[in-house]
């Protein structure tokens, strides 16, 4: 039996960081590497924290006590080294035992633990047919800072097996509950060297 009181967090750290030019997870903001910061927030909200990455050894010197690595493996058909956040999420979700999982990108320097905790209190009331509870912003859903039901894994794998790689496209096919976003600022993700000046 899983309950809403138990929550797992998945932190994704496996992108190409091509716009940044160096691994974003390792960039220090106010003296703390981004991945450490995001995992700290995740620990403040969830009972179990997984970091899904193709290269756990890269992060072994970070202070990530209480977090477990899940090593992402290439898809049989993939020639690329990284295959995007949707596939990373699916590989993490396969290990989750709780009804709900909080998914977080590693490039979110302005996360607020209080907002995530308040969101988590709403999960008990999310409609049965919703696969996720996410914030909405002008460009669509924010897929990498919100909650998913564990039982959406089969739908997610179907979508991936058909070649789908876009969260927005996948989410369009199912009911998703809206979470209230007190300030858009919290979802600021740093993708470029210029973004670091704003962090
Ligand atoms: N585990 C895993 N995480 C990924 C993968 N691709 C992207 N991510 C993560 O998804 C989040 C958002 O990534 P983006 O900022 O969109 O992309 P990116 O590939 O890291 O950077 P760009 O190359 O500049 O687009 C970050 O936390 C990434 O680490 C992947 O293949 N595997
Ligand atoms: Mg990003």
Automatic annotation (TrEMBL):
InterPro entries, alphabetized: MobA-like_NTP_Trfase, Molybde_CF_guanTrfase, Nucleotide-diphossugar_trans
Top EC class, one word: transferase
Subcellular location: Cytoplasm
Reported cofactor(s): Mg(2+)
Positions annotated to bind GTP: 12-14, 24, 107
GO MF annotations in UniProt: nucleotidyltransferase activity
Residue ranges of domain MobA-like NTP transferase in the record: 9-170
Keyword list, A-Z: Cytoplasm, GTP-binding, Magnesium, Metal-binding, Molybdenum cofactor biosynthesis, Nucleotide-binding, Nucleotidyltransferase, Transferase
Chief location of this protein within or outside the cell: cytoplasm
Reaction(s) the record says it catalyses: Mo-molybdopterin + GTP + H(+) = Mo-molybdopterin guanine dinucleotide + diphosphate
HAMAP family listed in its UniProt record: MobA
Annotated function: Transfers a GMP moiety from GTP to Mo-molybdopterin (Mo-MPT) cofactor (Moco or molybdenum cofactor) to form Mo-molybdopterin guanine dinucleotide (Mo-MGD) cofactor.
Recorded domain comment: The N-terminal domain determines nucleotide recognition and specific binding, while the C-terminal domain determines the specific binding to the target protein.
Protein name: Probable molybdenum cofactor guanylyltransferase
Gene for this chain: mobA
């Amino acid at each position: 039996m899983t309950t809403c009181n138990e929550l797992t967090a998945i932190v994704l750290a496996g992108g190409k960081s091509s716009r940044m030019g160096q691994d974003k997870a390792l960039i220090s903001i106010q003296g703390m590497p981004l991945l450490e910061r995001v995992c700290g927030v995740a620990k403040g909200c969830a009972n179990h924290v997984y970091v899904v990455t193709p290269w756990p050894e890269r992060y072994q010197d970070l202070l990530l006590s209480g977090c477990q690595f899940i090593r992402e493996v290439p898809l049989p058909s993939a020639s690329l080294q990284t295959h995007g956040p949707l596939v990373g999420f699916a590989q993490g979700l396969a290990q989750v035992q709780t009804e709900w999982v909080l998914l977080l990108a590693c490039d979110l320097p302005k996360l607020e633990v209080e907002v995530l905790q308040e969101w988590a209190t709403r999960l008990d009331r999310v409609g049965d047919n919703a696969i996720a509870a996410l914030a909405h912003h002008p460009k669509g859903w924010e897929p990498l800072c919100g909650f998913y039901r564990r039982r959406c894994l089969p739908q997610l794998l179907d979508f991936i097996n058909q070649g789908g790689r876009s969260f927005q496209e996948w989410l369009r096919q199912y009911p998703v509950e809206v979470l209230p976003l007190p300030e858009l600022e919290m979802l600021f993700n740093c993708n470029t060297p210029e973004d670091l000046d704003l962090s």
